[in-house]
Amino acid sequence: MQTILIPTDFSHNSWNALAYAVKLFKDVPCNFYILHVGPLSQSSVKGNSFSLPMSKITPSIKEKLEDVFQRIKQLPINKEHHFVALQDYGNLVSILRKTVEEKKNRSYCHGNQGCIWHSRICNRK
CB-based contacts of 101: which residues, under 8 Å, 6+ apart? Predict the structure, then answer.
């Protein structure tokens, strides 16, 4: 099964990346990981604390993710497509790297200034 990471900031470009990935992999069984990374200031970490960030999805982000999942239901998806919402706090690049390693993502798709970029970020076979 293909694993695809799609970061989102809930923008139009992020949605286009998700829709593009679903279309691109329409005939391939996939797990789509939809990742939102918020700034560390929005987590429960205060100052130079050793506390861990909240593991729960905050209510406003949860609502936005629910909206995304409602929109996904309107796409022509393969019955073997599975969608998982993820949220973390901190540096975007560090979180992306960590998520790729943990989820063994083979593909990455994101929207950028109206352009959709799809690239392989892992050299796994």
Answer: none
- Give CA separation, 116 vs 44, 54, 88, 108, in Å: 33, 31, 23, 11
Q: Give dist(CA 38, CA 34) in Å, integer.
A: 13
Three-state secondary structure readout of the chain: CEEEEEECCCCHHHHHHHHHHHHHCCCCCEEEEEEEEECHHHCCCCCCCCCCCCCCCCHHHHHHHHHHHHHHCCCCCCCCEEEEEEEEECCHHHHHHHHHHHHCCCEEEEEECCEEEEECCCCCC
* Stated pTM of the model: 0.74
At 68-89, the pLDDT tens digits run 999 999 998 899 999 999 988 8
pLDDT digits (tens, 9 = 90+) for 34-48: 999 887 766 655 555
